[in-house]
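USER:
Working in pairs, take the chain set out below, taking as long as you need, and write a paragraph about the fold.
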Amino acid sequence: MKNTLSTFWFYFTLLICFLFLIPLPLILVHRAKWHIYIYRLTKFWVGIFLKINFLPLEIEYRFKPNRKQVYVFTPNHTSYLDILLLMFAVKQFFIFVGKSSISKVPMAGYVYKKMHITVDRSKVRSKYNVLEKSKIAVKRRRSVVIFPEGGILTQAPPAMTPFKEGAFRLAIEERVPIVPVTMPYNWIAMPDKSFPPFIHHRLKVIFHEPIETEGLTVEHIPYLKQKVFEIIQKEINQHQRAL
């Protein structure tokens, strides 16, 4: 009964916040210089949403973030809640790289497609275009958030699936630090299901120390993938043992 009420309240407040939020972004999204205002508005909206759902969120930075520095953020991905928390927690003005199906969501999908980068992983050309668009974003001093697993693919959360190379190629070729990000509890609060229930649970986002890519080449991609994977999975395992 408690979980049913939590789920109802979660989706009800999500709908209300969405209806209040969406009209302005639908206007602002048509000019790139206005996208910063959508970013700020979204952070404000998510903050309100977390408060009215009484969701305790801890954000832990294990380094002092430089708002002027461009990063490639690589979070684990187990829940639709991941996107909301990252919108609130990332301090840099950033863009997501996400699957093209998100653009089909009414209204919000249109804003997402105009602001962020969508990829159809079934098409090689699409994946190539995503890399090129991500490089342009970095050159324009925008940080990039890429889920290195390529989606919610794990069948045994919170264990991760092998990483794809896109995020690491981008970081190396553009000489941008890569920041591993761990979200250890989202899979509990909002499991990956066709209509996921919401279970009230504490939430946490951990930004690990940046890994410099200066001097690395594409031959170092397997090494970088493995290093980032181990950092995130080790953190997940530690939180699992503490449950």
